[in-house]
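Before the break, one more example. Copy the sequence into your notebook; we will annotate it together after we see the structure.
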Amino acid sequence: MYGVDHLPEMVDLANKNVEKNNAQLKEDGRIIFKEGDGRNGLKEFAPYDAIMFGGSVKKFPRIMDQMAIGGRMVTLSTTPINLPSLFLL
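Here is what the structure looks like once it is written out:
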């Protein structure tokens, strides 16, 4: 599982929480947190079976090419009349 956040404090908090509650996941490399713009994805680890965006997007992210064939993306966006909606792509 890969997590990306543009705020270094959030990456640090995520690392500390996993280390406190299940350090083995990090030690085994099953969870990796990176600082960066999540809209760009993490090409070095692609393709992904699933991508989940935690924040709302105005247009769909540029990382569709990082999804595996048959992969899914879940994101929150707003409709033309500004109603929040959850999308499964």
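The first helix runs from residue 8 to 27. The chain has a mean pLDDT of 86. Try to locate both features in your own notes.
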